[in-house]
Design a protein that fits this description.
The complex is a heterodimer. Chain A is built from two helices and eight strands, in the order βαββαβββββ. By secondary structure, chain A is mostly beta strands. Chain A folds into two domains: 9-88, 2-Layer Sandwich (Alpha-Beta Plaits), CATH 3.30.70.140; 94-130, no CATH class. In chain A, β2 (36-44) and β3 form a beta hairpin. The longest helix of chain A is centred in the first third of the chain and has 7 residues, at 20-26. Chain A starts with 8 loop residues before the first strand and ends in an 8-residue tail after the last strand. The radius of gyration of chain B is 19 Å and the shape is globular. The chains are: A mainly beta, B alpha/beta. The A-B interface holds A 103, 105-111, 113-114, 121-122, 127, 130-134, 136 and B 83-85, 102-107, 109-110, 124-127, 192, 196.
């Protein structure tokens, strides 16, 4: 299967197989007008199988979302057909307005303007807790 | 700007400073009686709480200051739909320091991010109540003379009891502390507290449903009330509310210098007969709470450059 190389844009590589759609949705890529390819279950020497997302436009992507969904993913920036930057994305220390607190007693449930902030409290077990009420993110 | 939202906002050194100040206030109250002259504490109580609000008010008056505020949401602009952020910004124009109680967890944190004066969390739902922990700490220190090498029994509602979670977090920072967790199965300490506080710091603890069996080894017994307002289901509350009632015969095997604490109010979990026992410290704890709130107000106003 062939997907054309992109000239100016972003390649999100080494996504754990099966998480490509989740990233697509959380990054809001369905709102873009440019070409976006999700390639699922690609053969990978390192991972066995992986997903890849190619975005045919040099747009800002929320790296925190990527680090939260699938730490270890690579983000490659392509300009004029050349790889100009390659970043391995780790779990972010904080997440802002990426996930939302489900605790009905949390202040975020009744005050609309408050940002939903989660902090990484246990890196080993990938535990994020609401900054306000400390409820664990699902 | 320093605030007190969570007891862990303060280092053990800062807690010791507060304890030292509170002890000095107890021995030399006249030295402190004018330190907050002309300053105002705003008590913003979005849900009713007699003792905590009055404790803050008494603390400010004993420092020579004044108090403004409200004691329920209906008498505040929150009833008109004002946000916590806007309330904090507005009150910052009137007062020098805020003590806030709110039914929503995290509300004082939101207030602290928007206020230009120090904010003290006076209880946010079932989440945190750091000034109760300050009262607990001063009581432990005054009764035992130390924070380390103590066996602390926590009895009753360990699931919803915010004071329990805060006390465990605060005491886990001292060497040689051991916890005995005494509760019915349904009200056991949440696993995340065990995992992220006790196990993460290698703090020894045991869990039991048997208060009398645990009694002989305890230096501190922290009793708690099963709180009706924390239950969604009335049936569960009625079934669990009388799980532990401390009576004189249950103290038969207790240490002679055991200190019995309770954040109050009690319903029936400590027999009134125990009040006369020298090991009963829960009314001293109320008084200690006022002294620690005085020490806290002084600390935060000093750090803000207000006094």
């Amino acid at each position: 299967m062939n997907i054309d190389a992109i000239q100016n844009g972003i390649v999100i590589d080494h996504i754990t197989a099966g998480r490509g759609m989740q990233l697509y949705e959380l990054l809001g890529l369905e709102k873009l007008d440019c070409s976006v390819a999700i390639i699922k279950n690609v053969h990978s020497v390192k991972q066995g199988r992986k997903d890849i997302i190619k975005i045919d436009a040099d747009i800002p992507v929320n790296l925190d979302v990527i680090g939260y969904v699938d730490p270890g993913v690579s983000v490659n920036i392509i300009r004029n057909g050349e790889l100009v930057e390659k970043r391995s994305i780790d779990m972010p220390e904080t997440l802002t307005n990426v996930i939302f607190c489900k605790n009905p007693r949390c202040i975020t449930t009744c005050e609309q303007e408050i940002q939903h902030v989660f902090k990484l409290t246990d890196r080993k077990n990938k535990v994020y807790r609401c900054l306000y009420c400390e409820t664990k993110a699902n | 700007m320093r605030h007190l939202i969570d007891i862990m906002d303060f280092s053990t050194e800062e807690l010791q400073q507060l304890v030292d100040t509170a002890n000095d206030i107890i021995t030399q109250p006249a030295k402190y009686s004018e330190l907050c002259r002309g300053k105002k504490l705003a008590t913003l109580f979005f849900e009713p709480s007699t003792r905590t609000r009055l404790s803050f008010e008494a603390a400010m008056y004993e420092l020579g200051g004044n108090v403004i505020g409200f004691s329920e949401a209906n008498s505040s602009s929150a009833a008109k739909g004002e946000s916590v952020a806007d309330t904090a910004k507005t009150i910052s124009c009137y007062a020098d320091i805020i003590a806030m109680r709110h039914p929503k967890e995290g509300a004082p944190l939101v207030a602290s991010a928007n206020a230009t004066i120090p904010v003290i969390n006076a209880g946010d739902g079932g989440h945190n109540h750091p000034t109760q922990t300050l009262a607990d700490l001063l009581t432990i220190y005054r009764e035992k003379g130390r924070f380390d090498h103590l066996t602390i029994g926590l009895c009753g509602d360990l699931k919803f009891g915010r004071t329990v979670h805060s006390l465990i977090a605060a005491m886990s920072r001292y060497e040689g502390v051991k916890f005995v967790l005494i509760s019915p199965e349904e009200l056991k300490l949440p696993s995340y507290v065990k995992k992220e506080v006790l196990k993460a710091r290698n703090i020894p603890y045991t869990q039991t449903t048997d208060l009398e069996a645990a009694m002989p080894e305890l230096d501190i017994l922290y009793m708690t009330r099963v709180q009706r307002e924390r239950f969604f289901n009335e049936e569960d509350y009625l079934r669990l509310k009388d799980s532990y009632i401390l009576t004189m015969d249950k103290l038969a095997n207790a240490k002679r210098d055991l200190a019995i604490l309770h954040p109050l109010p009690r319903v029936n979990e400590i027999s009134v007969a125990i009040d006369a026992d020298p090991r009963a410290c829960y009314f001293k704890q109320v008084l200690n709470g006022k002294y620690m709130r005085m020490a806290l107000i002084l600390k935060l106003l000093k750090e803000a450059g207000t006094i």
